[in-house]
Amino acid sequence: MKKPIASIASSPDRSTGSSNLSAGRLFAASLARHDVKHMFGQSIPSRIHLAAPEFGIAQIGYRTENAGAIMADAYARISHKVAVVTAQNGPAATLLVPALAEALTASVPMVALVQDVVLANLDRNAFQELDHLQLFQGCTKWLRRIHDPNRIEDYIDMAFTAAASGRPGPAVLLCPYDIIGADAPCIGGRGASLGRYPLDRTLADPDRIAEAARLLADAAQPLVVAGGGVHLSDAATELAQLQERVGLPVATTTMGKGAVDERHALSLGVIGYFMGPGGMARYHGPLIDEADVILLVGNRTNQNGTDSWNLLPRGARFVHLDIDSAEVGRNYEALRLVGDAKLTLAALTQELLAGDLAKRGAWRPIVESRIANGRARHEAEAGPLLCSAAKPMRPERLMGDLARLLGPKDIVVSDASYASIWTTNYLAATKPGMRFLAPRGLAGLGWGFPMALGAKLAAPERRVFCIVGDGGFAHVWSELETARRHGIEVVVTVLNNQTLGYQRHAEDVLFGAHTSAVDFAPVDHAAIARACGVQGIRVTEAADYGDALGLALETRGTTVIDAFIDPDAHPPITLFENKSISRWVDSKDRMA
Ligand SMILES: Cc1ncc(C[n+]2csc(CCOP(=O)(O)OP(=O)(O)O)c2C)c(N)n1
Ligand SMILES: [Mg+2]
To answer: Which residues have any ligand 1 atom within 6 Å of their CB?
Structure first.
């Protein structure tokens, strides 16, 4: 037995009361100091969870670590707070990896407290011992093991600082069993609250901001392409000012959707790899092609957002604003603006307004009319599908119905695959800063539903609509019980095409055939929902979907709408353009 850790006197901190506490309570007190109100966990590390309620922290008990960490991710995206998830060592810890990887790629701040074996038992094949330092190496921004209970506050604060500062991301703190279990009072006394992000805002080099302003003012056809960094920086208001007051057209990536009001006369909508027939930005292609100065904001210029780096004209002059200097110029050589988007966009707008905007003013009616024209062509193209009565149903029709009841405060969460493309193309952001969440860091299946739960916990007063494919939903059905137990109310629509649609269609296009793994036996998702004690509704007729949404909103608790959609329906992915999608075969055992 290790000796109890002796109390090392430090004067109690009146602001936090965090000194002279046992280790478990000091962990909880430290989290409370960072304004943590929810912890996604399954009891372990028990000492921390047992102490947490005393410090005003509620445990959200997930069914799988995988889903719990995804809930934490969405909670952080919506609350602008660092989210906390906990897990046991070994197998439980391994299940955190996918969510951490998404958070790393999507720059989402979270702290995972992972139990580890007793320090003295390290490297002895202790029960469920695993080299967690190796395990988490590739999916964390910051990773440490705490080795002394008197350093708990130091390490918790380091983890929060790493998660919330600079480019946000996931931090993992390994917490050996004996460190958490130390009964004697530990050193406390830190008082800072580090739980909100961005923790520090830094302005890009003012000389370069002035140069960027000159470029944008003098450009023939400038364009802004905003990414998810705008949401992370909470910079939608500043971007809207730049758009409106300077007169710059703005497009976004999928992660940046909602960074501007998509009905604004200078908004192009979401651009990227789905500008085929029916795509919202399809007819804005020439505006992108002809752009001579392009301002990238919080945009990692990834493959989908640039249609495999073919979308943005190589001849344009790029200005790239990002908090992460490594992203600036990664794929497009650019004038470098390294800093926080909110601060820097505000400074850039001021600089532009102080200069000569005659060129922008003269061009504005021209670009507005081109955008209006492109939008009208899109509406004419997509309109019939948005009100299609076809059976099996068209997903566009479901989006059309959902769009009608969607308000700017609502949150739309979609899973990877087609779900995020349907929502992106057919649900408009109606105010700057409206939130559409999707796991677009890595585009993993199974994020949608737990993300919706995390988003709702972060904003209980807002309605959360969740759109998932049947394949992706199957990863996380078990969390329906979590939704019920915690009384979390979200409206889930399962786009049930009884197939891994994207996979199947892409194989058909690329290889002319698909493998046997892509088609499912029939699954009754409404029955699964009811079995877990939440409402389940099956919809096979398009005319019934609106009523199902209405019923879901009137009913307390989560609702699952199992919507039977056309398995041949595919969103406007450019890869599929002019390529035929194989007809749906073996229809006899499918539910319709
Ligand atoms: C975890 C994970 N596994 C596999 C994939 C590859 N993948 C991309 S889309 C897709 C099909 C998704 O099917 P479903 O969720 O039913 O949505 P649908 O495309 O049918 O709308 C697959 C398997 C992935 N993105 N993530
Ligand atoms: Mg499917």
So the answer is: 416-419, 443-446, 469-472, 495, 497, 499-503
Distance CA 320, CA 340 (A): 12
**End-to-end Cα distance, the chain:** 64
416 CA: nearest ligand 1 atom:
25
Residues with CB under 5 A from ligand 2 (ion): 469-471, 497, 501
Note the residue count of the chain. 592
Which residues are CB-neighbours of 371 under 8 A, at least 6 positions away?
249, 265, 266, 267, 268, 284, 287
Each residue's pLDDT tens digit, 311-346: 999 999 999 999 999 999 999 999 999 999 999 999
Render pLDDT for 350-389 as a digit per residue (tens, 0 to 9). Answer: 999 999 999 999 999 999 999 999 999 999 999 999 999 9
Sorted by sequence, the CB contacts under 8 Å of residue 323 that are 6+ apart come out as: 166, 167, 198, 202, 229, 232, 233, 298, 338, 339, 340, 341
Among all bound ligands, the one having the nearest atom to the CA of 570 is: 1
Full set of structural domains in the chain with CATH:
5-180 (3.40.50.970), 206-375 (3.40.50.1220), 387-576 (3.40.50.970)
The protein residue with its alpha carbon nearest to ligand 1, atom 26, reads 444
* 407-428 per-position pLDDT tens digit: 999 999 999 999 999 999 999 9
pLDDT for 1 beyond 70: no
What's the gap in Å between 535 CA and the centre of ligand 2? Answer: 21
Residue 592 in this model has a pLDDT that exceeds 70: no
Give residue 415 CA to ligand 2 midpoint distance, Å. 11
* Cβ pair 562, 498 in contact under 8 A: no
Report which residue type is found at 344.
Answer: T
Kindly report whether the global pTM for this prediction surpasses the value 0.70: yes
**How far is the centre of ligand 2, averaged over its atoms, from the C-alpha of 393 (Å)?**
13
Atom of ligand 1 nearest to the CA of 443: 25
Ligand 1 centroid, distance to 505 Cα (angstroms): 11
Q: Spell out where 391-463 has E strands.
A: 411-414, 435-437
